[in-house]
Write a structure and sequence with these properties.
The protein contains 3 helices and no strands. The chain is mainly α. It starts with a helix and ends in a 17-residue tail after the last helix. It is a multi-pass membrane protein.
Length: 118
């Protein structure tokens, strides 16, 4: 969660700062931004479900009919895999975002028409 927060603060969550220049990098940045959040959500849900199953299993340990050891390992594994995928996609998102912001023309100077000396 901290890495997701860090990458969103660094890139201003695509909603703050200067507009990105139109290019393929901008399209990839938007696509990877959405993919990053989807993977993050899936990872969080998998880890939450696995921890709930683990808590249920330890609470009702005496019941022999309930066996979720393989399911629990699979859910934790899927959650861990999506955490890694989120990290990879976040890195790719930041690279695409940085490329889309490179070469921005600076508008610090006055670009208007000036009147000549009268």
């Amino acid at each position: 969660m901290a890495s997701q927060l860090l990458i969103m603060v660094a890139s201003r969550c695509l909603c703050g700062g200067k507009a990105m220049r139109p290019s393929g990098s901008r399209a990839w940045a938007i696509f990877l931004f959405i993919t990053c959040w989807v993977f993050f959500f899936i990872a969080e849900v998998c880890l939450l479900v696995a921890s709930v199953r683990n808590g249920y299993h330890t609470k009702y340990l005496s019941d022999p009919s309930y066996s979720c050891q393989k399911v629990r390992k699979g859910i934790f594994g899927a959650g861990a895999a999506f955490v890694v995928l989120t990290g990879i996609v976040s890195e790719l998102y930041y690279v695409s975002y940085s490329k889309a912001n490179d070469g921005q023309p600076s508008y610090d100077r006055d670009a208007g028409i000036r009147m000549g000396s009268l």
